[in-house]
């Protein structure tokens, strides 16, 4: 087993330490770091972003060719690590012989501990793993409200100066993580978009902890990893085929989930009921057709699976604050002047 030791919160030092222990080619652009590794130890990428002096983001998208333990140890007991597993799974523990906490795909893990113990993350040989880690130094956070919330929630009431939490499954976070790799802008705009996305990921992870804490004692209905994968698949199917006349019974049969699980899954992933999600997908598909096709409004209504033009106008106006016809006229004027 190989051990990789990280002893700093400073992103530049972290990547220097990882490169020294794993090898690879390191590219640094502004506040972004990307280490490409392809050797006898690992294959993949480690990327990082310095959001502000108190907040950094690191993503490990790597297949290790032997069992690897990544250890965090530094003299700052005020740091909190917000992890999320997009692919595969790994385990976390405090100390070499500490209790093992499994972080599975689509789960959030939040960890903090005293400077006396290391945080261990264990990666299995030949397993394709993608895990993201936002590290926050609460003493240096510029936002006072965020600082107080993090300290009160994750530091002040630690047992043995340790905090470890594995959340329920959340698919909204993986969408935001995937969005980071699609940002193509450069310069200031790129920095602002990246920073705002990392803050949003952090907010979703804090929200997930709050949601789990509220429902921990109520036996609230929970979904498994395979359930959440089915929700994501059926959501994508609806996006691809908005014209189908969906019913809860049809979606339940196609996804293999009960109607109750469907509704709970859509609430967790999209913050909408199944019906609201379908309606929103259709309106967004219609807006795209108005901008990109020569279809008239009646044809668009039929194409997205609706039969009532007046109903379509109502739901379109509720989302875009104007009628479909007015929106189409605006697009045509823009096309003429372009």
UniProtKB/TrEMBL annotation:
InterPro entries: Homeodomain-like_sf (IPR009057), HTH_AraC (IPR018060), PchR_regulatory_protein (IPR053142). The keyword Transcription regulation applies. Keywords: Transcription, Transcription regulation. Transmembrane segments: none annotated. Residues 232-330 form the HTH araC/xylS-type domain. It comes from the Bacteria. Signal peptide: none annotated. Pfam families: HTH_18 (PF12833). This is Helix-turn-helix transcriptional regulator. It comes from Mariniflexile gromovii.
């Amino acid at each position: 087993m190989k051990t990789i030791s990280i002893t700093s919160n400073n992103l530049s030092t972290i990547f220097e330490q990882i490169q020294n222990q794993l090898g690879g080619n390191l590219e640094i652009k502004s506040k972004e770091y990307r280490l490409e590794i392809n050797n006898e130890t690992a294959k993949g990428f480690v990327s990082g972003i310095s959001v502000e002096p108190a907040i950094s983001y690191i993503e490990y998208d790597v297949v290790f060719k032997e069992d690897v333990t990544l250890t965090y140890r530094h003299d700052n007991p005020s740091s909190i690590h917000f992890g999320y597993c997009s692919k595969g799974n790994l385990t976390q523990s405090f100390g070499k012989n500490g209790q093992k906490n499994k972080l599975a795909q689509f789960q959030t893990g939040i960890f903090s501990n005293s400077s006396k113990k290391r945080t261990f993350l264990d990666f299995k040989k030949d397993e394709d793993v993608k895990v993201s880690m936002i590290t926050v130094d609460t003493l240096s956070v510029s936002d006072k409200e965020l600082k107080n919330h993090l300290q009160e929630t994750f530091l002040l009431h630690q047992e043995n100066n340790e905090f470890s939490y594995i959340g329920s499954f959340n698919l909204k976070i993986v969408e935001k993580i995937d969005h980071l790799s699609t940002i193509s802008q450069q310069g200031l705009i790129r920095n602002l978009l990246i920073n705002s996305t990392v803050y949003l990921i952090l907010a979703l992870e804090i929200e997930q902890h709050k949601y789990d804490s509220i429902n921990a004692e109520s036996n609230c209905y929970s979904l498994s990893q395979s359930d959440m994968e089915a929700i994501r698949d059926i959501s994508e199917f609806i996006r691809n085929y908005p014209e189908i006349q969906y019913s809860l019974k049809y979606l339940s049969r196609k996804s293999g989930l009960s109607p109750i699980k469907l509704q709970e899954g859509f609430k967790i992933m999209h913050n909408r009921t199944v019906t609201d999600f379908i309606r929103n997908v259709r309106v967004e598909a219609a807006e795209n057709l108005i901008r990109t096709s020569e279809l008239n409004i009646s044809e668009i209504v039929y194409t997205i699976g609706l039969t009532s033009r007046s109903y379509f106008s109502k739901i379109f106006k509720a989302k875009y604050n104007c009628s479909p016809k007015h929106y189409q006229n605006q697009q045509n004027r823009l096309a003429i002047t372009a």
